[in-house]
């Protein structure tokens, strides 16, 4: 007999509000005129994120263990990660609202007459806003999913809109479309490994619940080979999403080809969602099997830190440099996963938020450097930019120094916290390699700072455009938070220590 499932709508409301806003955005696309869509979509998207965040604060005061028949966990960790995604998505939408970055007719062939007509008519690509909300809804569900089916559905919901948005760049259309195809293929590989791992784990344990899989190692009579194969393939699927080596191959291409505001959105929010799911799985489902997976994940973390830092030193494009920087930071965050203690969980939460603010701010700066052809990402053309726009250059230097972990920035507190947690858990090797990789990484961050402030400016018309009000707000908030979290880290550290609780 079919039993009607019991859904706790109050706990699910933050996700449902975002999905509702996305559906309203689709209706706006269908029924409003082309000229009216832009302001309505921006207002609707920002309003949806604010309402969802407000409801999340209400849920924080009335938490229950699970919702949706045990498939969604409502705990301190999940609520914190969802809140971080909403805040950073809000800032990213402020950058996305500058619609100059998106093709007016994404389906038109690059350089075609159809594209020229669309540009001359002033059409704006506004479907990016409901796509963003759909992606945010998937990101919010991903780190709180407590069974593998919900986890996979969330993975697809967050990924599919991003594939589309990656190919919407207004300029360098072929590169953008290539990036979208590569990102789609990366996502397909990720999903395939992920599903293959789920199948083996189900074959071993007979359950799709993260909690039950976690205890199956004690009680199951199944072959442990299935367990180990399932763990490896599931982990590989998740490592594709976080951009860890050796599953990072096309990540720099995707970062470079996507519209820059979308790159910032992906780099910040997708990484938070993916690491949120990774932390829940390894701190929950695989906690009792740590002897089996710790050596594997430790090796991946070390390789990711070293190769990400070395590869970044050779880049001449700012977006590719930040892409390899993101890969290096994935290695640092894996140190928090391997730590497997409350300090590691809290440090990872702090790191994700601090990194998110810095990343959105850095890509916001990239959108402002342009010439007659549009955005300029070649680092040689950034030379002497401080003489043309000192304020923007100082802000970019602040973000780069935070990436490098310089004291008085949020990046220093992030790395100190996560390496301390790893040291306390006995992972000395990962701490040593992490510190050395940080030193290497600091070199290429300082190289960009030197290019900005101490090289002669080229005479080829590169300038910093005056940002829109929304772009100023986004970059300003990111800069302030980068400084505040570096000088007064306890403002966030006290919160993460309180919220660092997982339902097992």
Terminal residue distance: 30 Å
What is the tally of beta strands? 5
Based on secondary structure, the structural category is: mainly alpha
Main β-sheet, spatial strand arrangement: 4-3-5
Verbal overview:
The protein has 504 residues and is mainly alpha-helical. It has a domain at 300-504. It contains 20 helices and 5 strands. The chain has helices at residues 9-31, 34-60, 76-96, 113-120, 128-141, 148-166, 173-205, 210-219, 224-242, 251-257, 260-285, 290-312, 318-339, 342-366, 385-388, 390-404, 410-424, 428-454, 469-487, 490-499, and strands spanning 66-67, 72-73, 369-371, 374-375, 463-464. Strand 1 and strand 2 form a beta hairpin. Helix 2 runs parallel beside helix 5.
What's the helix and strand layout?
Blueprint: H1 9-31, H2 34-60, E1 66-67, E2 72-73, H3 76-96, H4 113-120, H5 128-141, H6 148-166, H7 173-205, H8 210-219, H9 224-242, H10 251-257, H11 260-285, H12 290-312, H13 318-339, H14 342-366, E3 369-371, E4 374-375, H15 385-388, H16 390-404, H17 410-424, H18 428-454, E5 463-464, H19 469-487, H20 490-499
Helix pairs in contact: 1-2, 1-5, 2-3, 2-5, 3-5, 3-11, 3-14, 3-19, 5-6, 5-11, 6-7, 6-11, 7-8, 7-9, 7-10, 9-11, 10-13, 11-13, 11-14, 12-13, 12-18, 13-14, 13-17, 13-18, 14-16, 14-17, 14-19, 14-20, 16-18, 16-19, 17-18, 17-19
Concise structural overview:
The protein has 504 residues and is mainly alpha-helical. 73% of the residues lie in helices and 2% in strands.
């Amino acid at each position: 007999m079919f039993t009607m499932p019991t859904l706790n709508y109050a706990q699910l409301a933050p996700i449902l509000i975002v999905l509702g806003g996305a559906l309203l955005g689709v209706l706006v696309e269908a029924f409003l005129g082309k000229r009216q869509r832009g302001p309505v979509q921006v207002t609707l998207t920002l309003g949806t994120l604010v309402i969802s965040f407000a409801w999340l604060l209400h849920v924080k005061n009335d938490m229950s263990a699970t919702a949706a028949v045990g498939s969604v966990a409502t705990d301190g960790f999940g609520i914190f990660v969802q809140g971080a995604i909403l805040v950073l998505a809000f800032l990213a939408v402020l950058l996305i609202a500058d619609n100059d970055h998106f093709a007016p007719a994404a389906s038109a062939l690059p350089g075609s007459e159809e594209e020229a007509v669309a540009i001359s008519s002033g059409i704006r690509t506004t479907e990016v806003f409901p796509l963003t909300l759909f992606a945010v809804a998937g990101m919010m569900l991903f780190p709180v999913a407590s069974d593998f089916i919900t986890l996979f559905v969330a993975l697809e919901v967050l990924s599919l809109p991003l594939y589309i948005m990656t190919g919407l760049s207004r300029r360098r259309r072929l590169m953008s479309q290539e990036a979208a195809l590569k990102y789609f293929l990366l996502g397909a590989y990720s999903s395939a490994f992920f599903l293959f791992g789920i199948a083996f784990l189900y074959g071993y344990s007979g359950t799709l619940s993260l909690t039950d899989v976690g205890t199956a190692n004690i009680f199951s009579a199944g072959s442990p080979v299935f367990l180990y194969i399932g763990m490896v393939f599931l982990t590989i699927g998740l490592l594709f999403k976080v951009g860890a080596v050796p599953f990072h191959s096309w990540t720099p291409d995707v970062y470079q080809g996507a519209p820059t505001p979308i790159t910032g959105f992906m780099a910040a929010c997708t990484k938070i969602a993916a690491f949120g799911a990774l932390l829940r799985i390894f701190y929950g489902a695989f906690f009792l099997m740590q002897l089996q997976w710790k050596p594997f994940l430790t090796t991946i973390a070390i390789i990711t830190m070293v190769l990400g830092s070395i590869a970044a030193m050779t880049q001449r494009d700012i977006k590719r440099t930040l892409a390899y920087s993101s890969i290096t930071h994935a290695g640092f965050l894996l140190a928090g996963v391997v730590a497997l203690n409350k300090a590691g969980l809290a440090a990872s939460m702090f790191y994700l938020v601090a990194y998110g603010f810095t990343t959105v701010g850095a890509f916001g700066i990239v959108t402002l450097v342009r010439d007659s052809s549009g955005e300029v990402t070649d680092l040689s053309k950034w030379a002497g930019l401080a003489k043309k726009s000192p304020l923007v250059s100082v802000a970019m230097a602040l973000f780069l120094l935070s990436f490098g972990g310089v004291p008085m920035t949020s990046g220093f507190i992030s790395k100190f916290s996560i390496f301390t947690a790893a040291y306390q858990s006995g992972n000395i090797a990962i701490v040593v390699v992490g510190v050395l990789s940080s030193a290497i990484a600091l070199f290429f961050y300082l190289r960009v700072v030197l290019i900005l402030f101490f090289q002669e400016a080229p005479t080829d018309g590169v300038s910093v455009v005056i940002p829109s009000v929304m772009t100023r707000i986004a970059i300003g908030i990111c800069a302030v938070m980068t400084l505040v979290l570096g000088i007064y880290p306890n403002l966030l550290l006290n919160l993460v220590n309180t919220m660092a609780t997982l339902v097992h």
